[in-house]
Amino acid sequence: MNYIDEAKRVFDIEIEALNRVRNNLDDNFIQILKAITECKGKVIITGMGKPGHIARKIAATMASLGTSAFFLHPAEALHGDLGMVEKEDVVIAISYSGESEEITRMLSNIKAIGTTLIGISGNADSTLIKYSDYVQVFPYFKEACYLGLAPTSSTTAALVYGDALAVVATKIYGFNENNYGMYHPAGSLGKKLFIKVKDVMASQENNAVINSGSTLKNAIVEMSKKGSGIVNIVDDERKILGVVTDGDLRRQLEKGADVYSLVVDEIMTKTPIIINEDDMAVEALQILKQKNVSSAPVIDERNRLVGTIRLHDILNKGIVL
């Protein structure tokens, strides 16, 4: 047996199944799509066995793309979880045979609740299709399993059909990157879109700051105490006047400067890069890298110093360009 050829046979059979479903898409898809996007409640997706795993994945995809959806296990539904189903919801039931016992046993209850029922099956004469308000009947295709029994082609077809519903729905919702980031706060895009400078900056006890007129010694002590590579110089109203970096200090010490008498105002950078606390952290990261600096003072809307943004603090949050 040539195992690569056998693997390709599985691919070919499932691709053929997908093409048959694709080529048979019609107004039923549009009706189901409208039922989902116009739903005033939740979209509940259910299936038993392998179709149940597909239903769970479709629900997860829909939820991440703007449709309020969740998976309902049919066996649990028969033991009380039908209480989660309400009239304004839409239930999508997936069963290739349309006769899965756990599915068919709850159909009359779903109808009694008054919920819109969508049936996805490969059997036009099945109980599921007869009960459903909207239907998608898949054309005949072979399962890729040698026995023709294990759900393979049918589950792949259902998965891609569900993806099509979820993705096309985003066009109707006007779903964009900001929406996606809102639902994925721990993901890279979510962090870029929603984490602000004030969420990651060093502030209060971690912010190295001294007043104008302080000596070089004061700067060294403050920088050491806060574990910072930069100390911010401010006036009495906490307006930023300049910054002194560890590099500035090192150069002065190499020159033999008197740390007790040299005033920081004489060596500070008077036009430092300044970041606003409401800027996005990814924007601050871009500025720091472009200017080849590792830290910058952060100000609020009244131009008062509120913190220091440090390159490593941004990167530690998993924010990258």
Structural class by helix and strand composition: alpha/beta
Please bin the fraction of helical residues: 40-55%
In DSSP terms (H or I, runs of 4 or more residues), the helix count works out at 14
* Largest sheet, spatial ordering of strands: 2-1-3-4-5
Strand content: 15-25%
Name the shape in a single word: elongated
Give the termini separation: 48 Å
| CATH architecture tag of the largest domain | 3-Layer(aba) Sandwich
Number of strands: 11
Radius of gyration: 31 Å
Kindly describe this structure.
By secondary structure, the protein is an alpha/beta fold. It folds into two domains: 3-175, Glucose-6-phosphate isomerase like protein, domain 1 (Rossmann fold, 3-Layer(aba) Sandwich), CATH 3.40.50.10490; 194-316, Roll (CBS-domain). It contains 14 helices and eleven strands. The strands form three sheets. Strands 2-1-3-4-5 form a five-stranded parallel beta sheet, sandwiched between helices. Strands 6-7-8 form a three-stranded mixed beta sheet. A three-stranded mixed beta sheet has the order 9-10-11. Helix 2 (27-37) crosses helix 7 (153-173). The longest helix has 21 residues, at 3-23. The protein starts with a helix and ends in a 5-residue tail after the last helix. The mean pLDDT is 96.
Quick recap:
This protein is an alpha/beta fold.
